[in-house]
Specification:
This protein is of the alpha+beta class. The longest helix has about 50 residues.
Length: about 120
């Protein structure tokens, strides 16, 4: 028999299987990381929607919001999002700075933050 007709040796097959299994583990790890990243992006995107909605409401309200803190909760995507609005004066007394911070359900950190400025109406 010629060497080309003998087939693969056991060591060659074991090395091929080891390389294949390392590739499979790397792909599974990548898939898990993509899933975690997609979940985090969903939370940040929905929190940004809540923050922008609250900021726009403060901008278009007939009366300017009161200086200080206000907070509450909004429901979006079947979740309760906690928000806090901080209103402060700027160097120009006619312009207010409005910061809106939103926390994801069950989280202690800020998932989104929006800052807008409101001038005289």
């Amino acid at each position: 028999m010629r060497p080309a007709e003998q087939g693969f040796t056991l060591i060659e097959i074991l090395v091929a299987l080891a390389v294949l299994s390392l590739s499979a583990v790397a792909l599974l790890n990548l898939t898990g990381e993509n899933t975690r990243t997609a979940g985090a992006m969903e939370i940040r995107t929905l929190a940004a929607v809540v923050a922008e909605n609250r900021a726009v409401e403060a901008l278009i309200a007939p009366a300017a919001p009161a200086i200080g803190r206000a907070g509450g909760a909004d429901r979006l995507a079947d979740r309760e999002w906690r928000w806090m609005r901080l209103v402060s004066r700027t160097a120009d007394p006619q312009i207010l700075r409005i910061d809106v911070l939103v926390q994801a359900p069950g989280a202690r950190h800020t998932a989104a933050e929006v800052t807008v400025f409101r001038g005289p109406q």
